[in-house]
Design brief:
Order of helices and strands: HHEEEEEEEEE
Strand content: 25-35%
Structural class: mainly beta
Helix content: 10-25%
Number of domains: 1
Number of helices: 2
Largest sheet: 6 strands, antiparallel
Mean pLDDT: 94
Low-confidence stretches: none
Amino acid sequence: MSELEKFRTAKDGFFRDHPQSPLTREQKQSFSGLNYFPENADLRLEVKADELPVKERIEMQTSTGDTQVYFRHSRFKFRAEGQDSELTIYEGPNGFFLPFVDSLAGKETYGAGRYLEPEPLPGGRFLVDFNLAYNPYCAYNERWSCPLTPFENRLKVPIRAGEKLFDADH
């Protein structure tokens, strides 16, 4: 079993059994695991991020109408499905944050986007592993408040890695 498979198995266990799971009691009764894309080595990236000279403050709207404050930290370019793309990495109270929406949103991936926490590396680089892309808790039920992906992080390319849409009947 790969490290990613172990991680996914542990996450499924957390969702099924843990009291802090985002699933409702009813959802847990029929839960048999989250839906994932197969592991995609091409979407495990070490990227050179161009740090922004001014860390502009951004208030991200949330799914419940509130706002959360982040700062634009850096931007990076990458290729996926043969297309050039660019994303912004934000910094918040809990570290680096990378929300994004891909072209599969609402069909194969969560419509409001998925999240990553890019791992900083030396020399202004980040590990961005889209295989770890996950749905925010508001994808499972409405009691959660989640930041909505800013327009600048909406991609025209599919990202076939990480979590797929949650199937409540799964």
